[in-house]
Amino acid sequence: MELWWGSVVVTSLLASGVAMFFGFFVKRVNEWFFERNLSEKIRDSLPPGDMGWPIFGNMFAFLKAFKFSHPDSFISSYVKRFGRTGVYKAFMFGSPSIMVTVPETCKQVLMDEERFKPGWPPATVKLIGEKSFVALSYEEHKRIRKLTMAPINGHEALTAYMGFIEDTVIKTLEKWAVMGEFEFLTHLRKLTFKIIMYIFLSEVSEPLMEALEKQYTTLNYGVRAMAINIPGFAYHKALKARKSLVETLQGILTARRAGRPTAPPKAKKDMMDNLMDAEDENGEKLSDEEIIDVLIMYLNAGHESSGHITMWATWFLQEHPEIFKKRRRAEQEEIVKNRPAGQKGLTLKEYRNMTYLSKVVDETLRMVNISSVVFREANTDINIAGFVIPKGWKVNVWFRTVHMDPEVYPNPTEFDPSRWDGPPPKAGTFLPFGAGSRLCPGNDLAKLEISIFLHYFLLNYKLERSNPKCSLRYLPHPRPLDNCLAKVRRQ
Fold it and tell me: Could you tell me which residues come within 8 angstroms of residue 235 by beta carbon, excluding any fewer than 6 positions away?
C-alpha cells in the first residue's frame, strides 16, 4: 500500500512538473516570435510583462476581468508582478502591445502625434469606418476635425442647441413621470439619440429614428465584443448593422444632394448640411464616404456615452442624498431664483455657473470610464519611461487605470465630487475625452446635454429603483442597469 501511494505521489509530481514546464514554454512562444527580430539592445530594454498564450495572448485574462470580475484587477496583476513601472508588454487584440498606465506616460503618448499614430484594432476600424477619427492619419484627422469642430462645440453652436435639448428633456421627464416602471438606461439612450439626431440630421421621422437607434445599439455591442465574424456572434451582427446604417445615411445624403438645386435656403443647417458644404483651404470638399463615417462615429458616441454618463450621474446622486439635497439641488434652485423676470429656459451663462454640477459630471466621468483605453502604434523605436517601444508595436493607453489609481485619486471607488474643489487636475491625470489633438470633439456638447438633464431632474424629479437586483458596479462600459426597472416620480 505504501509503495502504491509513493508511486501515486511521484507520478503526480512528475505530471505537475511536466505541466508547469509545458505551460512555461508555451507562454514564451509569443515573446520568442515577436521579439526574435528585435536587436539585443531593444530586447533588453523592453518593459516588464508577459505576452500570454499563443494566438490569444492576454485576452482571456482581460475578458475575465472586464466581463466577470473586477476590471481593475487586469492591470493590478501586472503591478503586483512587475512593480508600478507604468509601462508593460503584453499581447492584446491580436498584436504585440505596450500598455501605459500612469499619467506621465499616457500624456507623452497622447501628445506625440509624430511618433505615435492611430493603432485601433482592424475589427474596430471596420465597424466605425476607415474615414472616421479612429483611423485617420495626423494630417487627415487635422483636416476633418477643423471642418467639423465649429458646428459641434463652438459657443454659437451650443447656444443654438440648448433650446432643443431643454425642450426635449422637459417633455421626456414629464412622459416618464406617468409611465410607471421602465428601463431607465434604455430610455435615456433613446433621449440622447433623439438629441444627437436633431443636431446631425434635423428632421427625421420617428420610425426611422427608432430603427437607426436599434442599429446603433447593435453596432456598439459589436465594438466591445470579440471579432468573431460568424452568424450569431455580436461582431457579425454589428457588421450587418453598419452596412444598414451606411445604406440609410447614403440614401439621406443622396436625396439631399438631389433636392438642393430646387430647395429654398435653410434657416438653420444641421450637421449633414455643414459637412456637405465644408471645404478646406484648397477648396476640397468631403467625400460621401468621409461624411458617412464621420456621422456614424459622432452619432454612436454622441448617444451611447451621453446616455451612460447621465444614467450614472443620476444614480450616484440618488445613492448619495447628502450631496443631492445639500449641495447639488441647492445650486440649481439658486440659478432659477436669480433668473431675470421674463426669461424662459436656461442660458449658456447659467450653465457655466453650475460649478458643483460640473464637479459631479467630472467625478462620474472619472469613475465610469466610458472609454477605458485608446490605441496608438509606434512609428519608430521610442524611448519612454526608461524602456523602449519597438516600431510597429501597439500602444494601449489605459485611461481607466489612471482614473482608478489610489496614488492619483485617493479612495478612487468612492463617489466624491469634492475632490475637484482644488486646482485643475495635472495634465495626464484626467482623460475622459482623451488628450492632445485627438481630444474628443464633442466633449463640450456632451457635458452640456448631461447638465441640462440633471438640472431639470434634480429640481423636479426623483428616481425610484423598482428591481432590487439592480446594483452599481464599476465597469468600463457599464450596462448593469440595461434591464433594471425604475420609476421617475415628480417631486
Answer: 123, 127, 222, 225, 226, 227, 228, 229
What are the cell numbers at 406? Answer: 489610489
140: phi then psi, degrees, rounded to nearest 5: -65, -40
Q: What are the residues facing 377 on neighbouring strands? A: 117, 394
440 carries a ligand binding annotation: yes
b/e map 267-305, b = 16+ CB within 10 Å: eeebbbbbbbebeeeeeeebebebbbbbbbbbbbbbbbb
pLDDT for 262-305, tens place per residue?
A: 777 777 778 888 888 888 777 888 889 988 998 888 887 778 88
> Which range (7-21, 24-38, 50-64, 66-80) has the least confidence?
7-21
Give residue for cell 446603433.
Answer: 216
CA distance 187 to 170: 14
In this prediction, residues 236-262 reach a mean pLDDT of 91
Task: Tell me which of 274 and 420 has the higher pLDDT.
Answer: 420
Phi, psi of 31 (to 5 degrees): -60, -45
Give the three-class secondary structure for 384.
strand
Nearest to 225 by CA among 237, 215, 235: 235
Radius of gyration in angstroms for the set of CA atoms belonging to the chain, rounded to a whole number: 25
Measured between alpha carbons, how far is 449 from 160 in angstroms, rounded to an integer?
A: 13
pLDDT at 227: 85
Least confident interval from 19-23, 34-38, 206-210, 312-316: 19-23
CA–CA separation, 6 vs 12, rounded Å?
A: 10
Of 415, 374, 367, 416, nearest to 395 by C-alpha is 374
Q: How many alpha carbons lie under 13 Å from residue 207 in its C-beta half-sphere?
A: 0
- Within 8 A by CB and 6+ apart from 361, the residues are 309, 313, 447, 450, 451, 454
How many Cβ atoms from other residues are within 10 Å of residue 98's Cβ? 27
User: Which cell numbers hold the place of 110?
Assistant: 497622447
> Tell me: the pLDDT tens digits for 63-75?
888 776 688 899 9
DSSP state of 342: T
In Å, what is the CA distance from 195 to each residue of 78, 227, 418? 42, 30, 30
Provide the angle, in degrees to the nearest 10, between the axes of the packed helices 443-460 and 184-201.
Answer: 130
The DSSP element (H or E) to which 182 belongs, if any, is: strand 182-183
Checking if the pLDDT of 237 tops 90, the result is: yes
